[in-house]
Write a structure and sequence with these properties.
alpha+beta, 5-stranded mixed beta sheet
Length: about 425
């Protein structure tokens, strides 16, 4: 079949008439017992050789044809490598020289790029392939094709380099184009380390992982640092948005410092219920949990507040710590109940479960890791896992009701003096 190569003609060269090149397919059928994969690999290498030779013809002109204005000349061939199927394979590359300078062949530059190889390594690792088994996970090559780049150490180095670059790119990505209606922040434990995760929900209901930091949400320095990072990357802090937190006082203080009145804080109801139940013996947890679920799910902030205050009074004498936990932050656990939104969207915004779901997916992706060497390793793996999990993100439940939430946020902006009446009318 005809094979044509897209090449760049050297400056000053006369155009070379394109002529169809027919590959010697008969030569490929050396062994009638060869597998289809081997045939495809050999065919691909033959096509590559033909494309490289056409590049050289485009730069130097046809072989054995005199050209007075020729700048580049043929310089034989040399052994080199290109990326093929998750490994590097050795080929003979045609050489072209212009004076004392080597002239690059466009096709070879494209085929020798290692970025596809690095991506393949990361993908294989994230689906559960161990570094020692990487070579076995690749399609076999013909026996006479020399290949390398599949050893345990090589795969590990490529994975580290690729994920380290991924961490830098993710944590420095601009957030100026994002218009968020909700920001979720929570801490999750991996090994002996605690990671703080920030997740945003935009006006269309799409979820966006914003960053990952090593440290506890109880650490004021970590909390302030992660929020300053979001602000420096362009996150708007002068408009109202719902901020869902896990109940950390240090994180709450950092949110107040950065967002001020713009933060409409919602305490995670799951974390709150868990904290209350930890103060109770096993026999009393079921009925207390039932009251909490009834209060948080009723949809009426007045009724919910009455139920929680009644629960605190019932626990006052026997379990004063549990009663104090019920009263602590009571108003903030009911923030979204005052919003004119559907029950489905309300359930989404009352907990940090979207982050828990993300972390559950991340844990599954790197289930083969047996030992976390340090915090950098955890962040690299988690970043790769989060970016992989984000490819399957769906819009949040109740996203069709987001216009009502946006209108409520802009009305709150006007009430607090954050924006003028004109902006509210534009949103409406």
């Amino acid at each position: 079949m005809p094979v044509q190569s897209r090449t760049v003609r050297a400056v000053g060269q006369q155009p070379v008439p394109a002529s169809p090149r027919r590959l010697p397919l008969v030569d490929l059928l050396i062994d009638t017992q060869a597998e289809l994969t081997e045939l495809v690999v050999r065919s691909g290498l033959k096509v590559l050789e033909a494309m490289l030779e056409e590049d050289r013809v485009a730069i130097c002109g046809p072989r054995y044809v005199h050209q007075a204005d020729r700048d580049a000349v043929r310089a034989g061939t040399t052994a080199t490598e290109v990326v093929l199927g998750g490994r590097k394979v050795q080929i003979r590359r045609p050489r072209v020289r212009a004076g004392k300078q080597e002239v690059a062949l466009p096709t070879f530059q494209a085929m020798a790029a290692t970025d596809p190889l690095n991506r393949r390594v990361v993908e294989q690792m994230l689906v559960g392939v161990a570094t020692r088994q990487y070579a076995r996970s690749l399609d076999p090559l013909p026996p006479d094709v020399r290949a390398r780049g599949t050893s345990k150490s090589t795969v590990s180095r490529r994975f580290v380099a690729k994920t380290a670059a991924q961490v830098t790119a993710w944590q420095t990505a601009s957030l100026e184009s994002l218009e968020l209606v909700a920001l979720l922040i929570d801490g999750v434990h991996f090994g002996e380390h605690c990671l703080v995760v920030a997740l945003g929900i935009d006006t269309t209901g799409q979820k966006h992982p914003l960053g990952l930091w090593d440290g506890s949400t109880e650490n004021a320095t970590v909390c302030q640092g992660l929020l300053r990072n979001l602000q420096s990357r362009g996150l708007a802090t002068d408009r109202s948005l719902v901020v869902i937190l896990d109940g950390s006082k240090a994180l709450r203080k950092a949110v107040d410092h950065l967002f001020g009145r713009a933060a409409w804080v919602q305490r995670c109801q799951v974390h709150k219920a868990r904290n209350i139940l930890e103060y109770l013996p096993d026999r009393d947890r079921p009925w207390v949990h039932a009251i909490l679920r009834r209060a948080y799910g009723c949809g009426d902030p007045v009724k919910a507040k009455r139920l929680l205050n009644d629960l605190a009074r019932r626990l006052e004498d026997d379990f004063p710590s549990a009663a104090a936990s019920v009263r602590e932050g009571l108003e903030e656990t009911l923030t979204v109940l005052v919003l004119p939104i559907s029950d489905r969207l309300r359930r989404t915004l009352t907990t940090t479960n979207p982050i828990e779901s993300l972390m559950s997916r991340a844990r599954h992706l790197h289930r083969n890791v047996r030992r976390w060497r340090n915090g950098k390793m955890i962040i690299r793996w988690m970043t790769a896992a989060v970016c992989e999990a984000a490819k399957g993100f769906r819009r949040v439940k109740g996203c069709k009701d987001l216009p009502a939430l946006i209108a409520a946020l802009r009305a709150r902006d006007q009430e607090l003096g954050l924006i003028g009446r004109e902006s509210v009318q534009q949103v409406a």
